[in-house]
Amino acid sequence: MNIILKNTIRFVVLVLIQVAILNNIQVSGFVNPYMYILFILLLPFEIPNWLLLLLSFILGLSIDVFSGTVGMHASACVFMAYVRPYVLNYLSLRDGYEVGTYPGIAHFGFVWFFKYALTLIVAHHSFLFVVEAFSFANFSETIMRIIFSTFFTLTLIITSQFLMFKK
Amino acid sequence: MKNLLHFIVRFHFTILFIVFEIFCLLLLVNYNNYQKSEFLNSSNAISGGIYQKVSSVTDYVSLAKTNEELNRENVRLRNLLHSSYKLTTDSSFVFLDTIYKQQYIYRTAKIINNSVNKQLNYITLNKGRIHGIEREMAVVTDNGVVGVVKSVSDNFASVISVLNDRLRISAKLKGNNYHGSLIWDGVDYRKAMLKDIPFHVKIAKGDTIVTSGYSAIFPEGLQLGVVDEVMTSSGSNFQNIKILLSNDFKSLSYVKVVGDLMKEERLKLEEEATE
Q1: Is Membrane a UniProt keyword of this protein (chain B) (predicted)?
Q2: Does B41 reach chain A within 8 Å, measured CB to CB?
Q3: Average pLDDT across chain A, whole number
Q4: Chain A interface with B: residues with Cβ < 8 Å
C-alpha cells in the first residue's frame, strides 16, 4: 500500500479511537491513555524533520480541537517529534536502519520497540501533563498522572502492535 | 548573511521546533482564555457532528438511567400541577402579572460530550444559537450548577464546566450570606474549594453553599454543594473550605440552560455606575 495513504488512514483511525473511546476512559482521574501518539511512533525513518514536526503538530491540534484544549496536545506532540530523531539515533542498530522499514515491532522486535516507545511516551506525557497543570504546585499529583498514563498508553500501543501490524 | 543562512540550515530542526512550540503555547494561553474561542472548539461543525454520532451510540447504554431520571422529573412536575392539589380552604389565589415579570428562562439541552479527568474540562451540548442558547448563559440541573456557556455555534454549545480551574463562581453560605468564590482545584471531580470566606465566620460540616447572584450569570440560590472540610492555614485571613459538589459530573446527561431576560439592563446599569 502507498505509504502516504497508509499513514493518512492510520492518522484518521487513531484520532477517532482517541476521541470516541479513549477520552472517555476515566479511572480515578489518573489514567488517560493517549494512544494516538502511535502515529508519530510509526512514521517512516526517511521522513524529513520538518515534515515530522508539522505532522505531529497537526495531529496534536486535531486532538486539541476535540477536547477543547487548543495548543496543549499540539505542544506535547511537537516536543515528542523533536525528541524522536535523537532517540532513534541513540537506539540505532549496528548496521543502521534499512530503507523501507518503519520503527515498528514487526521490524525490530519487542525489546527494541519497548525501549523506543517508552522513551517517547514518557517525553510526550511529561510535557503534556506539566503543560496541563501549568504549574509545579501539586507536582506529585502530576508525576502520578505521568506514571499511570504512561503505563496504560504503553500497554495499549504494544497490544495494538501485536494485534494489527503482523509481518 | 552567509553565516546566518548557514546557521539556519544547520539548526533548522531546532529552530523549527522552537517556532512550533512558541506557536502552540501562544495558542494555549490565548485560546483557553475564557470566552475567546470561536473557531477551534468542540462546538464546531466537524467535531460537534462526530460527538453527536458517538453520543447517539452511548445513549443506548444509559437509556435505562435516563428514563428513570425523566420519570422522576415527570413525577415531580405532576406534583406541581394544579390538578394534584386539593383546595382546602375557600381562599382564592390571585396572580398579578403586572407585578411578577419573568426574569429567567429555562431551556433543556442534552450533553453530548463531557469530561472530568482533565484540568480544564469542557462540556458540549446538543443545542446552539438557533435554539436560543447564547454565551454566558448558566447551565444547571435539578441538583445544582454545571457551568457557563463558553461559545455557541448554530447547533452546538460548548460549556466551561465547574470542573475547570478557569471558572470562578460567586457563591455564598446559605445560612449567613457570607460570600466567596468557588473554584475547582483540579484534584477530585466531586470536590471544589470555596475561597475568600473570612476567618471569623463559623462554618460547620454540612452547611449548604449556593450561588450568590452577584454575577449576572447565575440566578441566586442555586445549590452548589455542601461543606465537606474546613481547613485553616496560619498567616491567612481566609479559610479554605472544601466543598462536596451536589452534581455528580460523571453521570450528567440532561441539563437546563438558564437565560436572564434582564441581563442587558443590569450590565448596562453596572457599567454606567463604574464609568
Answers
A1: yes
A2: yes
A3: 84
A4: 16, 19-20, 23-24, 26, 29, 31-32, 49-50, 53, 57, 60-61, 64-72, 74-75, 78-79, 81-82, 85, 131-134, 138, 141
